[in-house]
Amino acid sequence: MKVYEEQGGYQSLKKAFARKPEEIIEMVKASGLRGRGGAGFPTGLKWSFLAKDVFPRYLCCNADESEPGTCKDRELLLKNPHMLIEGMILCSYACRIETGYIYMRGEFHDLSFIMDKAIEEAHAKGYLGKNIMGSGFNLEIYTHLGAGAYICGEESALLNSLEGGRGEPRMKPPFPAVEGLYAKPTVINNVETLCVVPYIVNEGAEKYASFGTEKSKGTKLVSVSGHVKRPGNYEVVLGTSTREIIYNLAGGIRDDNELKAFIPGGSSVPMLPASSVDVAYDYESLAAAGTMLGSGALIVIDNKANIVETTLRLISFYMHESCGKCTPCREGTRWLHQIVQRILQNKGQLEYISRLEDICDNMSFKTFCPLADACVSPVVSSIKHFRSEYEEYFKNAPVGSV
Amino acid sequence: MAGFTFSEKQEEEIAGILAKYPFKKSAMLPLLTLVQRAERVVSPEAMVAISQKLDCSPAYVQSVMSFYTMYHTEKVGKYMILFCINISCQLNGCDKLLEYTAKKLNIKVGGTTADEKFTLHREECLADCANAPMMRINDTYYGNLTEQRIDQILGSLD
Amino acid sequence: MSDNEVTLTIDGKSVTVPKGTKVVDAAKQVDVDIPVFCYHEKIGPLGCCRMCLVEVEKMPKLMTACTMDVMPDMVVKTTTEKVEKAQKGVLEFTLLNHPLDCPVCDKGGECPLQDNTFKYGAPETRMEFHRHNNAKATPLSPVITIDRERCIACQRCTAYSERIEQGRGLVMLNRGFYNEVGTFNNEPYDTRFSGNVVDICPVGALTNTDFRFKARTWDLTNAQTLCAHCGCNCNITMGTRLNELLRVEARPNDAVDDGWICDKGRWGHHFVHSKNKILVARENSKGGGKPTSFPTFPHDCTIQEVTAKVVEAFKKIAEEHGPESVGFIGSPYGTNEENYLYQKLFRQGLGSNNIDHKPYRDTPGLPVDHYGVEQIETANVVLLIASDPTEELPILDLRIKKAVTSGRTRLVSLNDQKIMLDKYSARSVRYKVGFEALAISALANGLARELGEPAPTQDDGLDRAGISAEDMKALVETVRSSMKICVVYNPSALSGDAVLRVKRLLKLIAKVPTMECGAIPAAPMTNAVGAMDMGLLPDFYPGGVSVANHEEIKNQWGENAPTAKGFSALEMIARAEAGELKALLIHRSNPVVDFPGGTRVASALRKLDLLVVHDMLETETTELAHLILPSNGPGYDEGTTTNIGGRVQARKKALEAAHAPDWKIISLMLNAMGDETTYGKALDVTEEIARKVPGYQGISRRTVGKTGCNREAIASADEPVTDQPAGTGKNGSLRLRVSTFLFSHDKILDASSKLAHHFLPFTAHLNEEDAKRLAIQDGDTVLLSAEDAMLEAIASVGSRCQAGGVVVPRVSDWQGVNRLIGADGGPAWVEVKKV
Description:
Strand content of chain A: 5-15%
Shape of chain A: globular
Oligomer: heterotrimer
Helix content of chain A: 40-55%
Strand content of chain C: 15-25%
Strand order of the largest sheet of chain C: 14-27-26-25-15-16
Number of helices of chain C: 23
Distance between the termini of chain C: 74 Å
Mean pLDDT of chain C: 92
Radius of gyration of chain C: 29 Å
Radius of gyration of chain A: 22 Å
Low-confidence stretches of chain C: none
Helix content of chain C: 25-40%
Structural class of chain A: alpha/beta
Number of strands of chain A: 9
Shape of chain C: globular
Distance between the termini of chain A: 62 Å
Order of helices and strands of chain A: HHHHEHHEHEHEHHEEHEEHEHHHH
Low-confidence stretches of chain A: none
Largest sheet of chain A: 5 strands, mixed
Largest sheet of chain C: 6 strands, mixed
């Protein structure tokens, strides 16, 4: 706490309490901050969706970081818990929320001790509890641990898990802003998103909006991993070219190999071939390139890697994490796994490729939640850009082998 | 079925947990985690005890418990090794290291050593990708693994 | 189109439906069939199966029709290429690991998966790998088999367990592909309503073990009839083959069962083919239980001859000793037609009003509206008095749970014992066993004072009844402010004149300004309401017409219709004991076991000159009979019954009996008495009922139809309430409360019953205070003694009732619990001693 305050921590509270809550929402809207967890939904807009005149309301911080390749929230929670608390206080003040939960994935158990301690410190300083700094505003924040389920990162599944149930997503509508936790209006934001809010309140919306591009304002924590020399978390201004991130910040490809492919936003977004490395790292440019910014996890794959094997590993992930509620995802993820596994065992047939594509089409946008679409991304994009690697496996297969 | 009773200390902890939520059921995962960490297993008796605390059916507790990977119906070792095998770690050679670890402990992946000291599981992304390949043993993360590091880490645990 | 309606277009057809309707239901209205698996109207949308994907203009992706509310001007298309590809894809996924079990699967022929695949699926599969294996034909309970390989994880059954049953006994376990339906620790899923999952499972994963491999569904003949176990009269379909009843299914009727039946209704039907069934009329040797070697009528004599003999015997006795010497004890399990004809036989034929059907006191009609069962959902408050729906009227339990959890209705109860529904009750007021009269009067007086009506100013006796003043005050307030209240009371659990006090209470409630008040007389027996309506009473003619109403009786029934008050059932037994009653006809009733009085009942019946028993199964009473007539009973019967909600519904026969139906037998007796009416079918009797019984004037085949219709109101007579002596028992003895247990081991659920796993041992529930005083601990064997009876039971110590009482659930016919109650019907004091 001491260090945090010395560096200007919790200064934003005074500034915020001097304004009306609605003003804070407007500030966040004007800053152009978009959800940093993966969906990229404008944060200020999300806050403004809360059902009017319905109380109590809740704030859930989504610290269920499970998107493969993403390790930024862990670092924030480990090294800067107070920033999150400050962000949550600001969000709660703006949205008239009096209870906040930090839903941390179960494997972050050690981090929950750190966070609990930080919450205690904040209480001691009067930043949490009743009538914070004389503003008349009350807030309690609690940590809550999950127990090993990627699907709980999906906001409605998170709510079900927090309510003590299976982490199966909910039907929408109603949306969490209207009926969320305990059927009350709820805001769910990623750790990074909330950590940005103090900056916006301190420095102003324009300052934040002065960074980045027209539709992607501000900075993003990018977790670079895979075949790079210096994997780690880097804060980049949105719009920076991906080449710069990989080669300058992360030191380039390991062993000086060549770049083959990269997945810009966590395993759930389509991969891009090396030829696309100059794409600007922001929401709209990546969307135009046929992929997404997602959670900001840049996974780098060099030319020594086997794309088909990597794809199988990813399919396996989604197969394990499928909640099982809806048929296309439950059956489809496993079927995709079986087929790609066969291919890797040299038992596949050429028509498997079009079959994979068709199965992916039958899964896409037909399921209860986007997990199936996430599983489909690596399959479709790897076939699109690296079809020849798949075809290699059928060159020696006798016709009609199974 | 003999009953499962919480210790006095655990009852205190449970009271603190229940105080965090306006609805009892939210304490489901915290209570399951409490039992798993204390007993290294969640037995049917424990599920009944939890169901009584939360005013729900034991079947519901089992339904929730079986959904998450961190709860086990068979006792796990003193040290639970979760070895990440997801993409960033796979790209950095975790498969060979996992094989090495299993061989070193003389168990299959998913098994427990005879002295109940180590249980080794594959695990999906643990959010430490920058330090790939990595593993989690109980509450500690160990990254940038090599065979030597693994030897050193396992050796240091008693 | 009003504000509450929405117009949209589905496949080019315009349809207008209420707001909040799902697209899949709206489509049904214009004959557009959108395939579903997981959607069920009563359970609600789940969104699990993705079968109902449709295209909606202006929406980028396909939407599930079952989760989508209709929107004004929505344009929905269900037959586009995109939709058809999606449907094929979903079916391919659904069938991916589904075993090709059709040839051996019971669901074949009525299987939504088969039907949808045939209509919407691709002809081939691309799945070349081994299908996943899972547990096959595993017992989920003694009566339900689960085949986990066939399960398509639609979650209908788990949602049913959560939303309808609300017990959450059946849940989804594991995650993802390994999702499976299961219970806690593999324990059996044997709740009261578990069988409904068999009906709702869209594949052959959950099947009826009793019906397994017995017949293909297309070989079954289906009769649409009613369950006969309790007063709910749930609608069922009886599936028979070659004149054997093979299975019972629910037949949804929103006004009665809301689409469900209880397990007793589903599996408690084997008595229909019991080896103890009485199939031919016979003569017992001097009432000795065994057929006599030289019967007055031989085995193959016609039913006309038998009935003529019975009538001759009765007439002889009536002529010699007067109409007071003959009597009839009918049954609340008989149909309206049977009951109507019997009272006609005794009144018109023998001039006797000695007609009754129960060992407790009750009067026909209500001073307020007779609410249908579905009105529980629209009431603001449901007040239970001496009623335990979970054990007595199971479907009522589901209705009440539904109403309470919808947030609309509050449940309050006034009971002498803890019941399972207390969990849903906003306030459970418990009175001491035996003090229902005081408790009900206290409530009535409390209300009266609020209304400024005359009420005694002295102490209501709350102390003696074991009720706190605050509890009663709160209950009075809840009732007074309810605005729409439904009172559910069980007359068979009320002693003395307590039932009249309930009627007085109802009158008072109705006086509260702007109050809508209705009642449901919730006696557990199938046709208790009908029996009252048909005048199976010593002091009332059909339609609630009191014997005192000479004019109306003479108008309706002729100059010779008897108008002297007759004897009640218990009085008839007493008179038989005294030798004053000489002849008795008993229909579908077993007084030796069911009536209070212990061994005195049997010895009284033995004194009779003539005992004719007309019953379905051999009982302790048929053993004593001189002449026995076969009764068809459920499965074979035709006619109508009136349920607790006053709803008259049709019973259709599913099986052919070897003998004439009851209504025919009784009508032949009437003919032998000189009445010339002939009835060609049961419906003819129903028509006469409609002509002659006030309240039933609107009943006809057309109005009853397939779902029944409510009969008109029957007003209740004003009866004065007498002072209730509190009564004292021997020092230290306890007031006995015999409670109902749904799965009682009796003639209906006999030892071979599929539900035998529910049978319970004899238990006596003592209050902690009394247990301490008597030095009895939980689990001890105790002896209950009263009258000339001694019963052994296991003691259960708790707070099921207040101190001073003991609750003994009636768990079997052989328990003999009614022997503890005096021949006058109670109150019963028992001594409880540790063995």
